[in-house]
Amino acid sequence: KFWNVDEHHMDHSNEYILEAASLLKKQEVVAFPTETVYGLGADATSETAVERIFAAKGRPADNSLIVHLANKEQIKEVVEEIPDLAHPLIERFLPGPLTLIFKSNGSCARNVTAGLPTVAVRIPDHPVAKALLEACGLPLAAPSANRSGRPSPTSAQHVYKDLYGRVAGIVDGGATGVGLESTVLDCTGEVPVILRPGGVTKQDLEAVIGDVEVDSALDNDQSQPKSPGMKYTHYAPEAPLWLIEGNLSFFQHQIDEQQRNGKRVGVIASEEHASSLSADQVQTCGSMQDLRQVAEQLYHSLRVFDPEKIDVILCETFPKEGMGEAVMNRLSKAATQKISQP
Ligand code: TXA
Ligand code: MG
Fold it and tell me: Organism's domain of life (predicted)?
């Protein structure tokens, strides 16, 4: 089923939302928009329903899922306790693109947490997600609605391309806003730790609660990541993606060299640089001056070359400031190699 809804006229009594909710109550999986990326939802209390998420995505069973809730009161229903340090974060950032890790009280199905003693909770800030959560009255386990390993979907068309025929329904609520996934913050220790950079930046968090750590696995590929999902190949377009770090003439030289080898080259570059580069296809992805815009357009840019005959995608790098941290985290994972100007 494919429902086209208007996010501006949305509530939990909308007929399409009710239809989608009734499928969820029957342990089916339904894709829906959130403010970050599209999610693939299922009843988090049902092992059968959650198993269908893993099957549809082809997701490894040890990669735990985020539990989506309609409101703050529901957090208490799935966690053992909310530590003091989390209260100001909940007040300031929820609903919003921040996922918090707490000790689980065991009320979600076992396969949601993949055997971990903790549970990830998030309250999405999107009228369609909110209406659906209210209409079904269930906590919804929901990973991004892409096939495992692919870029996350920022439009219903992306979901359709990856999951058509594998899910019971897709609610189309238009393009998502943030464009990258939520920030995952482990709140089980004394100092909160960022396990995945995302929609809420480190600076945003520190302005509210002071010092925040960053999981060492994020800058060091050798160490064991704490967030199970961070160890898998991710966000990859069909053609190999190379990151190019250097000035414009170095970038153009890399393009020319690949073309001389007979390759068709796609380029992803900022508005500022795109017009100076010549390749078989050039895709702009926002302004260097506005990394939130780059985040919003990134996954779409990664998917643009899939239907084209492109042999390699060369992408420029962005400053790791603010949202640039999350942008470069995703690009580093999507890339098969990085070429830096000597
Ligand atoms: O923005 C988002 O967070 C989107 C939308 C749909 O809400 N969801 C999303 O889910 O990105 P997913 O499954 O693609 O990524 C969830 C991440 C994974 O890296 C997973 O390993 C981590 O959260 N995670 C889930 N439960 C965890 C836990 N208990 N402890 C540590 N990491 C956890
Ligand atoms: Mg994902």
Answer: Bacteria
